[in-house]
Amino acid sequence: MSLTERESDLLTSADAVFPDALAFVEDMVKTYAVLGQEQAVLNCVESQMADLGLPVTRVGMHKAELAEHPLYAPVPWDHDSKYNLVACLNPQAVGKTLVFNGHLDVVPADPFDMWTSAPNEPWRHDGWLYGRGAGDMQAGVAAMIYAVHAIKQAGFQVTSPLTVQAVVEEECSGNGALACLHQGFGGDFVLIPEPFGPTLYSGQIGVLWFKLGVRGKPVHVQAAGTGINAIEKLQRLIPWLQDLEAELNEQHRVGPYREIDHPFNLNIGAIAGGNWPSSVPAFAEMEGRIGFPPGMTANDIMQRVSHCIDQACLRDPAFAEERPVLRFHGFRSEGHLVDTGNPGIELLSQCHHSLTGADPEPYWSTATTDLRAFHFYNRTGGTCYGPVAKNIHGVDECVNIESIRHVLRAYVLFISRWCQLEPL
Q1: Among residues 345, 343, 388, 306, which one has the least CA distance to residue 135?
Q2: Do the beta carbons of residue 177 and residue 370 sit within 8 Å?
Q3: pLDDT for res 2
């Protein structure tokens, strides 16, 4: 589909606001919005949305209410004091509803000395913007917010329903997006600018978080042979979990995941134990994540992990007297395949083609996103389409600057073709 004169004017407006959008990304990166420290980024984004004339609402995360919903991910912390930011344009208007959703929270970046520069001090180099959260996914958040702003700057107003959501806890639970949906902030189609590039996000796996704790027998290290080292004991469980990982990849790959090498990954992401170098450690705990295939339920994968630990206890004499303590917290998110025949995805493909002259490539993710909340809550159609990033969750995370501009332009074009616009 070729561009109309109005669309060309809208894209010119997108280019005009792009420098401000890029500065906004840098402002968000400076807040270093890790779990429990999201207030600074919420303040930053709320202020920016208000300055751009977006009607901001704080949408709370009330644990007692959310915990009753089957999509709620149990977490050990209190998030009643947290909130998400939502701007609803024309909520009572007639027309197809469009939702933009992006998360503000980031994962920890320490140790900082592994980075070229401090991860909360953004810097640019060779066309890339560096900093924790620059790619995952504060660049995308800026693109979606400034796409709405670019429409206004071009002299038009959206008159059909459009919602912009900036949420927290995407990196650990998904409860932020769930809170928005649970309080009625849904729509007919959702776009999420996750940093997988300008592709058609076509599916994602399930993700489960778990904790395993064991106790040992503490003694002075001079008599280490009479004690039981909890850290070493805990490590004995890892091969059993690796066997489960292998089984999932060998026997349970479905659909397009049959073509992906090792899509379901186990990760032991944190481990702690003991309290003194000269004492045999009395306790140890590890936290892990395991991926599982679309179509497998959260209950099923939890049972498989439980069975895995049961087998370890039956066959390893180290666990004969006391079992490990297994707990599930955070993600228990099921995977799904995207309906790529949805009218919104067809329109996104047309917008991509109008800007690039080519059709977008499909992308099947081996991670999870907040898209699952929209899919499982009310079967909302949607996909992810975002900037190009490198080293997300790693050292020297960065996002390609021109790819942010492309997403901003693509979103402006999508709004103009999906929503109803009128001159101001």
Answers
A1: 388
A2: yes
A3: 85
